[in-house]
Amino acid sequence: MNTETLIYYAPVLVVVLVFLIQQRIVVTPEELERKHREILSDIEERFVTRNSYDDLKSQFIDMKEKIDKIYDCLIF
């Protein structure tokens, strides 16, 4: 690539770079890390962990078994 070609396309390159920066298509690693932390905090607020879910599920199964036993005792 020679200098004349670079000088010819330089205004177009500047316009494209400014557009990309203004539209936030290109982000800095700092902004990416900040967004990543925001997403993780949102996930922690809205969803449960797999371990918590499994624990709760086992508690419900235990409760169901106890209720079934009580029901059986009342019926017979």
Question: How would you characterize the overall build of this protein?
Answer:
The chain has 76 residues and is mainly α. Helices cover 84% and strands 0% of the residues.
Q: Number of helical segments?
A: 3
The largest sheet is: none
Please write the string of helix (H) and strand (E) elements.
HHH
Rg, rounded, reads 30 Å
Report mean pLDDT, rounded to a whole number: 91
Q: What's the quaternary structure here?
A: single chain
Number of E-type strands: 0
- The secondary-structure class comes to mainly alpha
Estimate what percentage of residues fall within beta strands.
under 5%
Helix content: over 70%
- The general outline is rod-shaped
Query: Would you identify the regions where 5 or more consecutive residues have pLDDT less than 50?
Result: none
What is the first-to-last residue Cα distance? 93 Å
